[in-house]
Write a structure and sequence with these properties.
The complex is a heterodimer of chains A (562) and B (813). Chain A is an alpha/beta fold. Chain A is built from 18 helices and eight strands. Chain A has an eight-stranded mixed sheet with strand order 3-4-2-5-1-6-7-8, sandwiched between helices. In chain A, β7, α7 and β8 form a beta-alpha-beta unit. In chain A, α1 packs antiparallel against α2, α9 runs antiparallel to α12 and α10 runs antiparallel to α12. Chain A is rod-shaped. Chain A starts with 7 loop residues before the first helix and ends with a helix. About 5% of the residues of chain A have low confidence. Helices cover 60% and strands 4% of the residues of chain B. Chain B is built from 30 helices and seven strands. Chain B has a seven-stranded mixed sheet with strand order 3-2-4-1-5-6-7, sandwiched between helices. In chain B, α1 runs parallel beside α2, α7 packs antiparallel against α8 and α19 packs across α30. The N terminus of chain B is likely disordered. The chains are: A alpha/beta (562), B mainly alpha (813). Chains A and B meet through α6, α7, α10, α11 and α12 of A and α15, α16, α19, α20 and α21 of B.
Chain lengths: 562, 813
């Protein structure tokens, strides 16, 4: 029988949203990125495990999950509801490692496929797989024991069948929600959000704990069908504790949640047995009614489904915000790189224009130039000076970017690998430029056939002085060149040299800049992801709004109207 | 007192909230003897009772303290005290510890032994094995043990056998006790000293790191230092022990049990304890009160209780609120108090012992505090007998995986106990543990030591870098830095230029006459062709002043220095070292300029050739001085034109060419010579030209002598030529060879002379060049050292000091 009447548009919108959520990437470790990643995983899990299956095949049986803290007595409860030991219960904590799903044999086919909880591997009980009871005296057991490999938790789901359960209902015994083993915690969260009915178990000594209350509040927020069980209550204080618990629930606004109290009995203490049927009668009756009475079943399933649908909104919005923040951070990092390298380049060019190279060794050589210093010595000096200048510019920009990235949230992870040739690169480019200058001067000297009178190397040195020496030196050096080779030739050489110099400076900086930008480009964040997510969600809410079925409104809204 | 307990015993009611008076019959006062005497009588009284009331006492879940003096206790303790009473009591009665120091030879699970080994026996390793620390008495004691044991065995019946064995182990000879007990006071003093030293080092460390390391990283250490200071000012006769645990674990019940009165509220409504409650067992007289401690913990005066039990003297027990309930203000309180107490008893129960919150948030974060940690598994009455063992093993496994050292087999570590506040099982062991903790008076010191350890562990990466190589300003680094600064100043180039200028001067001064004439001819011809090319290029910056130091090169030198010095240091310190280097280098180029300028100014006018200190205005003077020698030269060498042509390829010219450039150099020089004839162009600022450069080459002192020699050679050649001519034409041929000889002598002698002068001047040239270079290097190194190396060295020194203090603080020294 149909639980929900859904339109196909809703389903397609939901599927699109799911794909978009799966495509959202959060690579940078910004603040809140971890939470956003977890939220995304939870959203995906919930969509895959619960919403899509429920809406696609509304006639599937109800899934009721029994969840709670360590040692709350969930396994014992499930065993008692079914009437035989299907789940391990014991004194050592944490107990449940592999979740167990119990259903009526007629419903078996619903759960064997990958419809619900697709990423858990199904295992089935073979005659040897009957769970071993954790008898502390370690007496010989009549059945063979299979060692459960403790490493393989979290990926298996054991499916059991029993006719004691009503058709249309399946019980799932989940691991502890606050287990010491982290993978168990995640699995518990996943299982709980995959269910139609949540049964949250707490005990007389735990009902004041913070963690189960968090889960209760989440349940109220998502408006799921919920029941809570106060387990392991010593019978002397049962009424009082129950009353206290009721008060606490009322204070949280959960008065109408069905509440069951189960006493602690010596049979169940130590996990050595089942509770008597009378103890769990109330809960059993409630569950049967939910499963078999069509109206109640409709309400139960619809309520959870619509509540979950409604809860998607803030989560999707938060996820979209996180994705946008990621993109923004990447943009900021890129900007920092661009500006600092541009600044550095500007500064280097200005220095060259001012003739700041004429200092130190260069100045000494130039001073003694034709008389005491050879052409190539001067050329060497210029080359070293220019290399130092460019190398300094690149290093300063590097430092600046590294510092700024370290301060930015998320920048620390994008620091590129160190290359050794980054340091040598300006030297290489400058050497190449020098060779170009020398060759061009040689060509001109050959062309003018002044080879006997004019030394090409010295001319090249003079040309370099013109290019790198600042305005006054440029004037004089150009004069010398013009005198030796003719004014037009001198001009041509100078123009060519200036162009090559610009290219050399640009290349030196660009190489390093691209090195920084490469990892950012790999992240490939675009502003589109956020837009896509929001668009998908709007499509979904529009599709939801046209649902004709009255259960489309959440239970709360219906209550408010009444 | 004994009657009261007896009466209540007989009544055997199970009233939960009865305020029974604290039982003092167990208490060990200052002397064992009176207590044991009392307890002996007590024993007799009780043993008559136990047989009757056994069954009733076992069943009822009594809450009164007296009820917890269960059968086991009555059987164990008083009997051992009976044995004890027979032997002579020790003069100084820290009897508990002394006894445990002996009994730790046994490997039982009893809390006594473990406690003793923790606080007493680990100082005396031989005590465990029973090896002869006090020779002579040992073997006798052993025999006594065995004798007593065998006696006991035969005399007592089955059920009591175990207890008797234990008691004989407990009954250590008191004679040895006194010998072993005495060292404990000097050991404690030593411990206090070590702690004081470590705390002092921590304080120094914080002082040295301020301003270098980010304050938030040091916040924890500062807090530890402060708290330790506060604690040391308070009496260490008191040990503050907190009962912590999850809601519903039974902390308050345990608290009441230990205190012997209903001091803390126990209830079924969760969460229960909202504000901490304390119970103080006063220490001996003269030690002061515990009020200071309780004030520090901010325990309300109304929540301070007192109790009396001789064995627990000096114990302050605090019942904390839970740490995992819905009430929002419990956890911050717990966190704060856990940082202020000396020891913590974690109370867990079978339902919640594997709670992630307890392990992840608390136990895992305090791995160094194992010595002052107790873990108590409460509510074991809810488990079956056999299940208790399994759960306990599981708990120990969890603690092990949390990184908490477990005190087994006499190792120091956390103690794990099982209790039931309802039935009273295991309470004795807990009480014994606490009593030994209180009596040892080391809880505060242990806690402070553990805090120090954990905070220093976290601070380690700030001070110690595992992969560090050789640290600091090594010679290699200094040399490289000086080298680079010298390059920045152009020292080598200047030196080479000076050398070459000197050589050039020598060359010119010793050139043969023919060479001089030829030089002029060619220069004149060149000038006609290519004009006044290759005027000297100035090294001039727009400011007008010369700047000898190259900024990029200086920056590179400083950067490299920073990198290499900061290479092995931890992050914050390497940043500081680099910053110090950069800060110092901010004015370095200007300083280099200034120094160079000051050195050069007096010599610039002489024209040593490299830098003219003043800008424009000096030029004309230089020019004028330059012109004069040229004019002199020109006048003197006009005669040698003809000879120059014949000497065009004389080897004298090659001396200058170090690069084998062919004739270019020669032409260049001749062009320079030619330029001398051009008039300085008036009105246009004239930079120092090649002729200036040429002219400013230093003229060696022997120049006139060389000139005279060359002229003589020239004259010789001329005379020889004329003689040959005259002899062959007028006088006949006999004297012609003489003329030829003269000619030959002159022709050979001139270049020879020239060559010799050049060779001779090579040495001084090199010396001149290298002095120039050395002077510049010294200049550069001096500036660099004072501005950059010293701040860097200061930072490194500070880091070294900090690291030393860190090592002292860890107590490894």
């Amino acid at each position: 029988m149909a639980i929900l009447d859904v339109q196909p548009e809703l389903l397609t919108a939901l599927k699109t949203l799911r794909d978009r959520i799966a495509a959202a990437r959060l690579p940078l470790p910004l603040t809140g990125a971890e939470r956003a990643r977890r939220s995304r995983d939870e959203l995906l899990a919930q969509l895959d495990d619960y919403l899509l299956p429920r809406l696609t095949s509304p006639e599937a049986p109800l899934l009721a999950v029994v969840g709670g803290s360590t040692g709350a007595g969930k396994s014992t409860l499930v065993n008692s509801l079914v009437g035989r030991r299907v789940s391990e219960a014991g004194v050592l904590r944490p107990t449940t490692r592999t979740p167990v799903l119990v259903c009526h044999p007629d419903d078996h086919h619903w759960f064997t496929g990958a419809r619900v909880l697709p990423d858990l591997r199904r295992t089935f009980p073979t005659p040897q797989n009957i769970p071993r009871q954790e008898t502390p005296d370690n007496e010989e057991s009549s059945v063979e024991e299979i060692d459960y490999d403790p490493e393989s938790t979290g990926n298996d789901l054991r499916i059991e069948t029993d006719v004691a359960l009503p058709a249309g209902l399946a019980l799932l015994d989940a691991p502890d929600i606050d287990s010491l083993v982290v993978s168990n915690r995640d699995l518990a969260a996943e299982l709980v959000s995959a269910a139609d009915v949540w049964i949250l178990v707490t005990t007389a000594s735990r009902y004041g704990d913070a963690v189960p209350w968090h889960l209760l509040r989440t349940a109220r927020e998502y408006d799921v069908t919920l029941a809570t069980v106060l387990d392991r209550t010593p019978h002397q204080i049962a009424t009082e504790v129950s009353h206290q618990y009721g008060l606490l629930l009322d204070r949280e606004g959960m008065e109408e949640v069905p509440r069951f109290t189960i006493p602690e009995l010596p049979e169940s203490a130590g996990g050595s047995g089942l509770l008597p049927a009378t103890a769990v009668a109330g809960l059993r009756q409630w569950l049967s009614r939910q499963a078999q009475d069509p109206a109640a079943r409709e309400v139960a399933a619809a309520r959870t489904a619509t509540g979950t649908l409604a809860s998607l909104r803030p989560r999707v919005v938060a996820l979209a915000g996180a994705v946008a923040a990621q993109h923004g951070a990447v943009q900021r990092l890129c900007d920092v790189v661009e500006t600092s390298f541009a600044d550095s380049g500007r500064r280097a060019r200005r220095r060259l224009g001012n003739g700041e190279l004429l200092a130190g060794e260069v100045a000494a050589r130039l001073q003694s130039f034709p008389a005491d210093c050879g052409g190539d010595e001067l050329l060497n000096a210029f080359e070293e000076g220019l290399t130092a200048l460019l190398g300094g510019a690149v290093t300063v920009a590097d430092q600046h970017v590294a510092d700024a990235w370290r301060r930015e949230p998320g920048g620390g992870c994008c620091l590129p690998m160190e290359e050794d040739e980054a340091v040598a690169r300006p030297g290489f480019l400058v050497r190449r430029w020098r060779r170009c200058i020398e060759e061009s001067v040689e060509e001109e000297v050959l062309a003018a056939e002044l080879g006997a009178l004019v030394d090409a190397e010295e001319m090249a040195a003079v040309l370099m002085a013109a290019l790198l020496g600042g305005p006054k030196t440029e004037e004089l050096a150009l004069g010398v060149l013009a005198d030796a080779l003719g004014r037009t030739v001198a001009e041509r050489l100078r123009a060519n040299g200036v162009q090559l110099l610009d290219a050399c400076v640009e290349r030196a900086l660009a190489a390093r800049r691209d090195h920084w930008l490469a990892p950012l480009e790999e992240l490939a964040t675009t502003p589109d992801s956020q837009v896509d997510l929001v668009a998908a969600y709007s499509a979904l809410s529009k599709a939801r709004a046209v649902l004709a079925f009255p259960a489309a409104r959440t239970h709360r809204e219906v209550q408010r109207e009444r | 007192m004994t009657t009261v307990s007896a009466t209540t015993r007989e009544e055997g009611t199970a009233s939960e909230k009865e305020a029974a008076p604290p039982c003092e019959d167990l208490g060990a006062g200052d002397d064992w003897a009176p207590a044991s005497a009392a307890s002996v009588s007590e024993v007799e009284h009780r043993t008559t009772e136990t047989t009757g009331g056994e069954t009733s006492a076992k069943e009822a879940h009594v809450h009164e303290y007296v009820g917890e003096l269960s059968e086991a206790e009555c059987r164990e303790r008083p009997v051992e005290e009976a044995v004890e009473a027979k032997t002579a009591p020790p003069p100084w009665s820290d009897g508990l510890i002394a006894r445990r120091a002996f009994s730790s030879g046994a490997q039982g699970d009893s809390g006594d032994e473990r406690a003793g080994s923790r606080y007493g026996a680990d100082r005396l390793p031989t005590a465990r094995t029973g090896g002869g620390q006090v020779p002579g008495t040992e073997p006798a004691v052993e025999e006594e043990h065995l004798a007593a044991a065998s006696e006991a065995e035969t005399s007592t019946d089955g059920p009591h056998r175990e207890e008797h064995e234990e008691t004989t182990r407990h009954a250590a000879p008191p004679a040895r006790a006194s010998a072993l007990v005495a060292p404990s006071i000097p050991d404690r003093a030593e411990e206090q000293q070590t702690l004081a030293r470590r705390l002092g080092a921590l304080g120094e460390l914080l002082g040295l790191s301020r301003g270098r390391v980010e304050p938030e990283l040091l916040a924890e250490a500062a807090r530890v230092s402060e708290e330790a200071g506060a604690r040391r000012r308070l009496p260490d006769a008191y040990s503050v022990v907190a009962l912590a645990g999850a809601t519903g674990s039974g902390k308050s019940s345990l608290f009441n049990t230990l205190a012997g009165a209903q001091l803390s509220e126990v209830g079924i409504c969760r969460p229960t304890t909202a504000a901490p409650v304390s119970c103080t067992w006063e220490a001996a007289e003269g030690e002061g009160g515990a009020d200071g401690l309780l004030d520090r913990l901010s325990i309300a005066p109304s929540a301070r209780r007192y109790s009396w039990d001789e064995s627990l003297n000096g114990l302050v027990l605090v019942d904390l609120p839970d740490h995992d309930s819905v009430a929002p203000d419990h956890r911050p309180q717990v966190d704060r108090l856990l940082g202020l107490v000396d020891a913590v008893v974690w109370v867990v129960d079978p339902e919640k012992y594997a709670d992630a919150l307890l392990h992840e948030r608390y136990l895992r974060r305090m791995p160094h505090h194992a010595d002052v940690t107790f873990v108590v598994l409460n509510q074991i009455d809810r488990l079956g007998r056999e299940a208790v063992g399994a759960v306990l093993d599981d708990l120990r496994r969890l603690l092990d995986s949390d990184g908490v050292a477990l005190g087994d087999y006499g190792e120091p570590g956390a103690a794990v106990l099982t209790t039931s506040a309802h039935t009273g099982e295991g309470i004795d062991e807990l009480r014994t543990e606490l009593a030994s903790l209180a009596a040892a008076r080391r809880a505060a010191a242990l806690r402070m030591g553990a805090d120090l350890d954990s905070v220093l562990r976290r601070l380690r990466p700030l001070y110690i870098n595992a992969e560090a190589g050789e640290l600091g300003l090594t010679e290699l680094i200094r040399e490289r830095f000086d080298e680079r600064l010298a390059v920045a100043l152009g020292a080598r180039a200047a030196g080479e230029a000076a050398e070459r200028a000197w050589l050039r001067g020598a060359e010119e001064a010793s050139a043969t006459v023919w060479a001089r004439l030829l030089k002029r001819r060619i220069e004149k011809r060149r000038r006609a062709v290519v004009g006044d090319a290759e005027r000297g290029l100035p090294a001039e910056r727009p400011g007008g002043a010369l700047s000898p130091a190259s900024r990029p090169a200086v920056a590179q030198a400083v950067r490299e220095l920073g990198e290499s010095t900061a290479a092995g240091l931890p992050e914050a310190w390497s940043r500081r070292v680099r910053d110090a280097a950069f800060r110092g280098a901010a004015g370095l180029p200007e300083a280099l300029d200034e120094a160079a300028r000051r050195r050069y100014a007096p010599e610039g006018a002489e024209g040593t050739g490299e830098f003219s200190a003043e800008g424009l205005p000096a030029e004309p003077h230089a020019c004028s001085s330059a012109v004069a020698p040229e004019a002199r030269d020109a006048a003197g060498t006009a005669r040698d034109d003809r000879a120059v042509e014949r000497r065009a390829d004389a080897p004298g010219h090659e001396g200058v060419e170090k690069k084998g450039r062919g004739t270019a150099r020669f032409r260049a020089r001749s062009r320079a010579g030619g330029a001398a004839f051009r008039e300085p162009e008036a009105g246009r600022p004239r930079w120092r030209t090649r002729s200036d450069a040429a002219a400013s080459a230093p003229r060696p002192a022997w120049a006139p002598v060389a000139l005279v020699g060359q002229v003589l050679m020239m004259a010789l050649q001329l005379v020889g030529a004329v003689w040959m001519l005259v002899a062959s034409t007028v006088l006949g041929g006999e004297t012609a060879p003489l003329g030829a000889t003269l000619l030959g002598a002159g022709a050979v002698g001139a270049p020879l002379l020239s060559w010799m002068c050049r060779r001779v001047s090579q040495g001084p040239a090199r010396v001149h060049g290298s002095t120039e270079e050395a002077r510049l290097r010294r200049l550069a190194a001096g500036c660099g050292r004072s501005r950059v190396l010293e701040p860097v060295a200061a930072e490194l020194m500070r880091y070294r000091e900090a690291r030393e203090q860190y090592v002292i603080a860890t107590g490894e020294v």
